[in-house]
Amino acid sequence: MRAPRLLGMAAVVPLLAAGLMPATTAVADTAETAAPVQLLELTTSTGEATEVAEAGLEETTSAGTSGGTGVAPGLNERLATVARAASVGGVDPEADALLLTEPLEVDDFLVAGFTWTGADELPDGLDVYLRVRENGVWSEWYLNEASGAGRDDSVGVAGTEEFVTGGADAVQASVIGDAADLPADLQLALIPGQPVGEEVLEPENLDSVDAEPTAVATPEEAADNLTSGLTAPTDVVTQAADDAAPQEGEPEPTEAATATTESAAASTGTSGGTSISPNLPAALAAATTAGSLPVPVITRAEWGANSSYMTWTPSYVTADHVIVHHTAGTNSYTSSQSASIVNGIYYYHAVTLGWGDIGYNFLVDKYGQVFEGRYGSTSAAAGKMVVGGHAYGANTGTMGISMMGTYTSVSPSSTQLTNVGKMAGWFLKRAGVTSATGSSNFTFKSTEKYKAGQTISLPVISGHRDVGYTTCPGDVGYSKLGQIRSTAQSQINAMGGSSNTKASNSRQIHLNNGWSGTASVVFYYGASTSTILAGDWNGDGVDTTARRDGTLFGFRNSNTSGDSLRTFAYGRAGDEVLVGDWDGNGTDTLAVRRGSTFYFKNSMNAGSADKVVVYGRAGDQVLVGDWNGDGKDTLAVRRGATYHIKNSITSGSADKVVVYGRAGDQVLVGDWNGDGKDTLAVRRGATYHIKNSITSGSADRVVVYGRTGDEAIVGDWDGNGTDTLGVVR
Length: 729
Fold this sequence. Notes:
By secondary structure, the protein is an alpha+beta fold. The chain is built from 9 helices and 42 strands.
């Protein structure tokens, strides 16, 4: 089913009204950097060529080579170009064109791609070419390969791989082949770094520009290393704690991640000023990663992912293979453009191709900067990965990591290869893989290369071409898999063994999956001074632990000993911290309380609050639970033995008031019987009095667990839908 097309600039207002777009992105950035995606229609819904698609052909009949294929700007120059093309296979995207646009001036864009309907692949013999103008210079012609990516469930439309530019302001497209093979709805999407809406480029509004002849980009035209002579970007740093704090008295919360500007490590822009805007999250200097990740990873919040474009619910599966990719394009981008390019790829995958999210789990630019792609990739539990759309039929059970650039005839940079290898080794180690150079069985979904259900022995680190009919990750990129595997093995070795051995001054955690007197799981996490929290941080249905140290929060997605998966700063050291699923998306996040004011955050990232609410009194004890079973956690306040329960995150009076227990009891909240509703339990020493309904009266269950001095935590530790107890020592 084709994804919805013409959003248009008018879509910004209703999206804002619905609360789907961050106000800072839709208002501030629209005025300065946001722009619509431009759509150039090449065929109609019946496969007929459009006026735009044939406009360039009119110029090929006047200059006069044999067969009437000469073009301006001159016969000698044109013949030289044709001869050059012939020397590398005889293809000339202008002289041999079935369809050819004029060289067209357009608004600045960073990512481009062709889409069509009626078939997953382009017919044999039908090829699409593209060239772009960057900084006043026309690129070579690039063959755009039909994408071998896509969701395993086949949701979305057919298209080419994303084509990455360094900031282009003019474009020319060519189609070579038989007219009978033209697909329906063939169009070219031109995506800026901050896409908002879409617009069709009508023929009467298009301006042609001069374009000198250029040859076809080929593997034979080898080039130097992409980053020779370039300055590496500034190291990524963790954000300062109090800078991320929501300030008391803020009139409105904001969803934008805090950001700092990038140091002058690379060029500040290219044609048309398409470098990253100061208003776009400056991920290059604001990554909030630490712990077990081997390199800083720039999160979705930090590169500016618009949550309204994500319609694909994350699914976490056991995974123990890595698929390496590259993108298409000119390789001319700067380090300051990388975050915007990732944002453009996200729109192309999520909206243009209709997948509902970006296909890659991670992307690594030629400067070594690592970006989180598919939602949930950084927070997946050890041995699991969120299913992506990077390799059709082989997404389930793999992690896809893409090198940003075209590596057919040039090599990825050494930093890029190193960080791809480190990320691969980190993932494989957590999946229990000990050899990055080995192979293991892998079972495919339906692909063009393998039958559905077919199992083969696949290298644990493979190229995209190993699992599908594609040239990805390019001939040179593919030749570097040995180097990536070697780095991955070093990373595996460096991470050492994982065990539940007590670390120095760490906290001992005992979790019970039932109501017995003996713990089901014992492990160590956090420092002796850490506050331990519990929540479902990745939406897989299993609660795991997090640690709070002042304003820093770290979390893990498995109940095992080890370091934090990631750390970030939020709030102030004196805040009371609450955990809950505030927006009903299946994942828990944080809120901080100051007096009777609550600052809610809907992602596990640094930055400002998403919502601010006043409820209760400063002296109340606050509880969090899903009291009505609607999937969203809300607040209750306790005054002595009386509980004032609210079923929405709003100010105002309580929806229900009940009395339970004694004023001196410690109170816990959980879904004790698996009915989807949270209720209360009171603790007296090591005895717990559990109630399965929010009513006054006697307990439904009384259990003894742990010691009187233990700190109690509550969670669904095994994912069976019921909450049980844990203690922290």
